[in-house]
Amino acid sequence: MTKNDFIVRQKTLKRYALKISLVHLAVLALFMLWPQKKGLHGTDPVFAICLIACLFGGIVLNIWLQIRKQKQPGYCCPKCGKRFGKNAAKIVLATGKCGRYGETIITE
Ligand SMILES: [Zn+2]
User: Fold this and answer.
1) Phi, psi at 105, each rounded to 5°
2) What is the pTM of this model?
3) Closest CA to 89 of 2, 7, 31
4) Contact yes or no for 67/84 (Cβ under 8 A)
């Protein structure tokens, strides 16, 4: 993979993470309309429990989807499977190799 391919894939990952976060925010915004439709107050325990479940469930789902995407071929090291998060991607861009076992990632 060339350096440009690697950079494009990193940008794709960032866009994917942004999309997931925006969907989560949209779901939360729609969820906030629920008490007004049902005539519930914001302090209703059922609403509070559901809000917390939606908030933290969304965060867990967001992280899980991002990790799942990063484990796909082309987004992780082909030898050891190390995900190229922010720091690992910086190492790959600087050295052209995986930071764990030195597998060559970027070939010019
Ligand atoms: Zn590796």
Assistant:
1) -105, -50
2) 0.79
3) 7
4) no
* pLDDT tens, per residue, the chain with 108 residues: 899 999 999 999 999 999 999 999 999 998 888 777 767 666 778 888 888 999 999 999 999 999 999 998 888 999 999 999 889 999 999 999 999 999 999 988
How far, in Å, from the CA of 13 to the mean position of ligand 1?
Answer: 18
CA of 81 relative to ligand 1 center, distance in Å: 6
77 Cα: distance to centroid of ligand 1 (angstroms): 5
Q: Tokens for 87? A: 């720091």
Strand partners, 83: 76
| Residue 88: closest CA among 66, 64, 105, 63 | 105
Name the residue type at position 87: N
3-state secondary structure of 71: coil
Q: How far apart are CA 36 and CA 101, in angstroms?
A: 55
Closest by CA to 98, choosing from 83, 3, 108, 86, is: 83
